[in-house]
Model the fold of this input.
Amino acid sequence: MRGLLRHRGSHAAVSNLELFFDLVYVFAITQISTFVRAHLDWAGLAEAGVLFLAMWWAWIYTAWATNWANPEAVPVRLMLVFAMLTSLVMAAVLPHAFDGGGHALAFAASYCTLQLGRNLFMVWAMAQDHPSGSRNMARISAWFGYSLPLWLAGAFASTRPIQFALWSAALAIEYTGPFAFFRTPWLGRSTGADWDISGSHMAERAALFVLIALGEGIVVTGTAFAEQSPDHAGAMAFLACFASSALMWWIYFDIGADRGAQHIAHSGEVGRIARNAYTYLHMPIVGGVVATAVSDALLMAQPAAVASPALIAAGGGGLVGYLASVALFKRYSSPRGNPPLSHLVGLVLVMALIVAARVVVWSATGFTAACDLVLVIVAVWEWGSFHGGWQERFRRWQAS
Done:
């Protein structure tokens, strides 16, 4: 099927159709954020985690598929429109996915239809020009086939705990697949050579999804501020929330995004880096950003209130996950293979703030501002290290 594939490991630009597809996931991130705010307990957070993992897995596998597929080909365009429709159904019913009945079935059915339908399409699309890639997609399809009964059984489960357990087991199977190289009876196992992707394309797609997640915080903050009467408490909360989004953007994009893109584009192990640094590590990066958006919503709802346990957990916990995962991501492209010291120090400082907030009564705005200060330290430290030559001057000072 000539014309359905657009490269064999070379550069592939992100298409307008892929950006159009991503609009659904702008809505999906908002739905997940809404679900978390409505279920601020341990059970609700666990359920939100399952829904987030499913949405991320749906998006990232589509990103892998479009890395090979040519969006200018009509069959590929139809496949992406189909993926967009099933993703939209998932996002629409997401807030009620654990309520049982039709919503649970709609979520599970649309998810399984998307994952199997897209991958089977890629088996066909790659069959002539990329036989090894076609076999790889067949193995991936088989692994989604393994989890399908668990998704459907969960949709018909009689209680939320049973549904949660079945859907968690389904995701555990799917998330194990890449590390097991999709070993499948009669089809063998995949190899790194089967993952001859465009590294620059994967890096750009992941960075764009980080922007989608950051946009949720901006929308939440701006919407809440627009609905309030202007006062000092609301203005300070607004500035603290905006600063969080801006600083997280800086920490990821100032050095990490571009350096990561350069590293994967020139690496001899593109598939492994795409799996570890982008498929897996970007998941907690996005999750951390979403958690801080939840914290922003809680703050903007009561800007003059005391920091609640939910706000501390969402804001502080989100930043812990964000800094830890960004540090591990940057480790892949570091010349020495080490995570940035600035991020590790920031991680310790945020955890200290969480402990302090459990002991001393803080205002919600004050806690968020203190977290922002930690992000400023991380951003300035890293910027100075790489752009200001601090490390080199320090070494010279030691030598003298």
Q: What stands out?
A: The chain has two domains: 16-195, 199-396.
